[in-house]
Amino acid sequence: MHMMRVAVAGASGYAGGEVLRLLLAHPGLEVGAVTASANAGQPLGAVHPHLTPLADRVLEETTAAVLAGHDAVVLALPHGHSAALAAQLGEEVVVVDCGADFRLRSQWSWEAYYDTPWAGSWPYGMPELPTADGRQRARLRGARRIAVPGCYPTAVSLALAPGLAAGLLEPRDVVVVAASGTSGAGKAAKAHLLGSEVMGAMSPYGVGGVHRHTPEIEQNLQEVGGPEVEVSFTPTLAPMPRGILATCTARVTDAGLDPQALRAAWATAYADEPFVHLLPEGRWPSTGSVLGSNCVHLQVALDERVGRAVVVAAVDNLTKGTAGAAVQCLNLALGLPETTGLPLAGVAP
Amino acid sequence: MHMMRVAVAGASGYAGGEVLRLLLAHPGLEVGAVTASANAGQPLGAVHPHLTPLADRVLEETTAAVLAGHDAVVLALPHGHSAALAAQLGEEVVVVDCGADFRLRSQWSWEAYYDTPWAGSWPYGMPELPTADGRQRARLRGARRIAVPGCYPTAVSLALAPGLAAGLLEPRDVVVVAASGTSGAGKAAKAHLLGSEVMGAMSPYGVGGVHRHTPEIEQNLQEVGGPEVEVSFTPTLAPMPRGILATCTARVTDAGLDPQALRAAWATAYADEPFVHLLPEGRWPSTGSVLGSNCVHLQVALDERVGRAVVVAAVDNLTKGTAGAAVQCLNLALGLPETTGLPLAGVAP
Amino acid sequence: MHMMRVAVAGASGYAGGEVLRLLLAHPGLEVGAVTASANAGQPLGAVHPHLTPLADRVLEETTAAVLAGHDAVVLALPHGHSAALAAQLGEEVVVVDCGADFRLRSQWSWEAYYDTPWAGSWPYGMPELPTADGRQRARLRGARRIAVPGCYPTAVSLALAPGLAAGLLEPRDVVVVAASGTSGAGKAAKAHLLGSEVMGAMSPYGVGGVHRHTPEIEQNLQEVGGPEVEVSFTPTLAPMPRGILATCTARVTDAGLDPQALRAAWATAYADEPFVHLLPEGRWPSTGSVLGSNCVHLQVALDERVGRAVVVAAVDNLTKGTAGAAVQCLNLALGLPETTGLPLAGVAP
Amino acid sequence: MHMMRVAVAGASGYAGGEVLRLLLAHPGLEVGAVTASANAGQPLGAVHPHLTPLADRVLEETTAAVLAGHDAVVLALPHGHSAALAAQLGEEVVVVDCGADFRLRSQWSWEAYYDTPWAGSWPYGMPELPTADGRQRARLRGARRIAVPGCYPTAVSLALAPGLAAGLLEPRDVVVVAASGTSGAGKAAKAHLLGSEVMGAMSPYGVGGVHRHTPEIEQNLQEVGGPEVEVSFTPTLAPMPRGILATCTARVTDAGLDPQALRAAWATAYADEPFVHLLPEGRWPSTGSVLGSNCVHLQVALDERVGRAVVVAAVDNLTKGTAGAAVQCLNLALGLPETTGLPLAGVAP
Q1: In degrees to the nearest 10, what's the CA dihedral of D86, D88, D91, D94?
Q2: Are B30 and B19 in contact (CB under 8 A)?
Q3: Where, by residue number, does the polypeptide cross the bilayer (chains A, B, C, D) (predicted)?
């Protein structure tokens, strides 16, 4: 296979490190330039000691000059930095942005949640999303610019989409509580993220709809289920490095719904999806089972007493939730088979 | 202070061990007989090496003869065993049951969720519950038989009660997702509870309203908020030994509700409660902050976008969630100040 | 009991927080001023949300004026700050220093390991240490200045002292590998201490005798076993918030030593010590069993194949390893029974 | 590449699961029969939910008939079961045993540590071991029977071998303390391995030279450093699912040894080894950096004060410590490049 070269900007963070881990195992892509800002000049071994084969590669400054000349560039930067860089990279270069900058199509939503100017939007990198006019995948094949979804939106959107698409769930009574591992909060040193603080502890944050992933979740679900969809979303921090467990409930539109009919919506929606797995009845997803993999594990139940569906999704926030999605998008953009190089098996126990 | 003697039946489990830990620090109660079934004959040091001062105390068989002659007996047995034992203990002995046997007042509910005959009900040991005719506390002073609440019901009931009592929350649109540490699943060796399985992993269980704490939660909230209350309850297992974080949301009855008015309901309800703390605005509960303490930490927010209140409660499932509540009930039953011997500070980090 | 007032300087760190937790449960001591530097002006609830009863107490600036007028002052400051403060507090005030400043009696040792001028030494707060002329305890009764031992030195010194004192261990062939929870590294935000980094990971640090606790360990063991004692000490960071497990091995002086004779040295040495427990044969210490308690759990074995004794000690680095020792010293200095207010039972599971 | 088929016996345990995970990513090997005993008849998805692509494969009974007809068979069975099975598989089948049965060349050692008859020995599957007559690798190319090393012996032997081979370390003064994740203890449900027990706790086990890996470690090191080598080995259980951190110290033979000369022995020994990495000076191994990878990370220091070398090794006990070594041996036995299909990058954070 001809190896295409991929540069990674923002390679010293957790998302960038995971992109590099996946590229190392990819048979068609190879690691090109790796760049950083504060860590520029350091060897990768100093910031990502787990990337043994890249230990001696030196982080360069994040500039368009360094990133140019690759087949593709993955941006893993804080929001607000992608637009300027992307503008300097020619249209012949595929650019995949792991940050938030180009995810929201509504300027109003962006401005309500972010502190930088709206940069516009790019095709949204969630191939499996069953939008009104077919899978999102179709828009990603051969695309030159792709916005990689956020980690929570990945878990929540794929969990709820089939039921909303099928009209089985009330769009105005959706409640999501999700637990995330600490890597979702990034690698910047903050006292409340110290191991001493987080081990043995669960706590919520961004309560009351203020988390920035809220409008992204609603954008996705509205595309699937119509403009009435609104979501109560509460994220919590769990004592584990990786993983998202999203518990999503919604009132069913038909109180007498047959549980098998409910289940069938998910089974049908994802029957041909390589990365989205509806577990057999009776087994529930665990973040431990998807660690390091690009899979989404799902299960659905009907609580007939209260007339609500409960859908639970588990993903690895860094793999399918970020870097795995980025590589999946690269595959589509570059004309490779979509699953190339992406782990289907998790690392457990 | 005259020391009253307390026997603990089922002392080899996690709940029994926590009762013993609290009794060791109690200035008015002392440890009497400690009993077990499979572990009878072993020294406590072999099953609870953390209870250093009791290391040489030998576990006796759980029989009424061994338990008799104490001022009080705490039962920490699997459900189905309490009624027969309690019947053999005279009314002069205070009996506090940490198990489920006497919690539910509805035989129908019991039979829908449990596999043993309904044993009836005892006064419910949640002093802080604001029932229609005053705090539950009044029924516990001097009581001879008390049913200690379940761990999830403690967190969820105290989280939601003020809003339901004040008519601020829709009784038919209550959704609870709660995370529990593994000690809530007990000490019996099961493969899915191995450290290798649970560290780094979150997973749900008992999804769809089938968890046995569901009817207990609804019983409490119906007493507070009327017979229409129904709850969608999803418990999840978190990678930590102790702690419950309950994220409780409900649609508010008045879409234009002032956030401060919402908050005021909780502030008022718990202003005089020694163990229930509404945190200052902007701080959210963490299970890490209540570890080993008898406190409940609460916070409430209004998500005006979607018209839902979000209330989060953190408790230690073994302390306030079980053994601390048992000692609190003992204090009330035996005429001691309610807070005697109960830790208000958690062990952190 | 007349309550004596204790001020805590450096109350916003982990050591200071643990001192406050223990003072809250102490029947003879009450919390006086609480001070900090960067956090001065904040309520304690913002930095130690687990100290519920003190949530509204405001941290003052650390000055001698604020600390004066108490029966005792506990210093929990970075090294280098204690001498100047202590000099401003009259001799009528008991000062107990949790930092390193006054632990080393050798200026040469201090200067080899620390970057501030040697401040001299105070009586060393390890009551149980069996020095050549009796327990260290005798020097602490009524003392006005006490240096609280370091966490590793507590575990290692108490583990090895009986064998060295009895001449059973070769003083020049002592090897210690110890694992510590992350709270030992403090509360300052550092990237390598993030939860994401430490959960699931063990790593060494300070390898090759460079850790600052090395000279303190040797000072203690030389006092017990003579000037030839030297120690190879390797600390490691373990994925838990609290606890030290010290695995200490030394060649035995008599290759034909009877294992029971070895064991007897420890049994005799600690027979009357309330906080130091030699476990029954066959049970090994676990940091989980001493969490939050002031106990040291010990076990000893003879590896006859290779002629080495292996002694393992478990302590809570913040309790017996720091704040518990400080309170134990306060008790001795203030004329209270030595065990007053100190937990003997750990918090487990 | 022609795909060779590999059967896995004992596929329901942790070692078997990891072998399957690695086979799924291997370009030249494919998963054949998967067998178990108690779990026979179950789908793999029920016992290894992380192996998503194999979820529907059904575990068969472990019999020679089922295992026959493959290019290779990996045995991941409790000790005592491999000999009888292997005898029924023809010499044309490569058999790699992850258990202990064929590791020890001394019947006397076997009988001192195991409770089943000695089965003899097979070529020892540690390609990197620098034995007196060259690397062990030479004996593995084209071998038909290979004994995969134990997890602790892998870390300890590779850590100490270069120094012993170079005569820099005293063979009679070697002390090893190693911490292992809980998966090393297997998947059988035992109360002391419950998550509630192990999270937040470190404890030793098999103290005093009684751990079964002791004779295997000594066999390896004696082959490298001569018959006088003896090792004090203390394993400890750490609160993490995977990983071994081995802290190995030995007195240096030359008290005036130059630290760079010490380091050079390791640098030279492993310069051409793809999986063994001496880290740059100043960086220490972490189990977190090798999780899921086949790498060994090493660092060495000289404690000149006490005349001891300290070598620390980190491996993933299930990958390089078991299943990765098995695949590495399969590669050698089957004539594939040694590194084929084996991850060099760990999964972090």
Answers
A1: -40
A2: no
A3: none
C30 — contact with chain D (CB < 8 Å)?
no
Sign, CA dihedral A113-A117-A123-A125, equals: negative
Q: Does C199 touch chain A (CB under 8 A)?
A: yes
B104 DSSP assignment: -
Give the HSE-up count for residue D323: Cα atoms under 13 Å, Cβ half-sphere: 34
Q: Phi, psi (5° rounding) for residue B319?
A: -95, -95
Q: Is A199 in contact with C241 (Cβ distance < 8 A)? A: yes
Is D201 in the A-facing interface, judged by CB distances under 8 Å? Answer: no
- pLDDT class of D134 with cuts at 50, 70, 90: confident
Closest Cβ opposite residue D345 in set A21, A291, A297? A21
CB B224 within 8 A of CB B132: yes
| CATH fold group of domain D4-148+322-334 | Rossmann fold (3.40.50)
End-to-end CA distance of chain C: 33
Nearest to B223 by CA among B338, B122, B328, B105: B105
How far from A301 is each of A247, A249, A298, C124, CA to CA, in Å?
Answer: 11, 9, 10, 63
The verdict on domain D152-315 having CATH code 3.20.20.70 is: no
> Where are chain B's structural domains?
4-148+322-334, 152-315
Tokens encoding A165: 């698409």
Q: For the segment A221-263, what is each residue's pLDDT rounded down to a tens digit?
A: 999 999 999 999 999 999 999 999 999 999 999 989 999 999 9
CB B347 within 8 A of CB C21: yes
Alpha helices by DSSP H, A247-335: 259-269, 287-290, 324-334
CA distance A204 to chain B (A): 7
Of B290, B260, B296, B291, residue with least CA distance to B278: B296
Cβ(A127)–Cβ(A140) below 8 Å: yes
Q: How far apart are CA A6 and CA A327, in angstroms?
A: 10
Minimal Cα–Cα distance from A52 to chain D, Å? Answer: 6
CB contact under 8 A, C25 and B21: no
Do residue D55 and residue A24 have CB atoms under 8 angstroms apart? Answer: no
Pairing type for strands B72-75 and B4-9 reads parallel
Rounded to the nearest angstrom, the gap between the alpha carbon of residue D153 and the centroid of all alpha carbons in its chain is 7
Gap between the Cα atoms of A35 and A15, Å rounded? 13
Rg of chain D in Å (alpha carbons)? 19
- Count other Cβ atoms within 10 Å, centred on residue D190: 13
Q: How far apart are CA D278 and CA D194, in angstroms?
A: 35
- Give the minimum alpha-carbon distance from B259 to chain C in angstroms, rounded to a whole number: 22
Q: Is A248 a catalytic residue?
A: no
Residue A168's contacts (CB-CB under 8 Å, 6 or more residues apart) are A252, A253, A254, A257, A261, A262, A265, A309
Q: For B273-320, what is each residue's pLDDT tens digit?
A: 999 999 999 999 999 999 999 999 999 999 999 999 999 999 999 999
pLDDT over threshold 80, residue B254 = yes
C-alpha C8/C-alpha C62 separation (Å) is 9
- Residue C97 falls in which region: left (phi positive, over 0), alpha (psi -120 to 50) or beta: beta
Smallest CA-to-CA distance from D184 within D138, D239, D131, D243 is with: D243
- Among candidate residues C98, C151, C248, C295, the one labeled active-site is C151
Instruction: Mention every residue, 6+ apart, whose C-beta is less than 8 A from residue B256.
Output: none
CB D151 within 8 A of CB D217: no
The pTM of the full predicted model, rounded to 2 decimals, is 0.98
Q: Is the pLDDT of residue C8 over 80?
A: yes
Q: Are B177 and A233 in contact (CB under 8 A)?
A: no
CA-based radius of gyration for chain A: 19
Query: If you ran DSSP here, which 8-state letter would residue A57 be given?
Result: P
Q: How far apart are CA C235 and CA C239, in angstroms?
A: 13
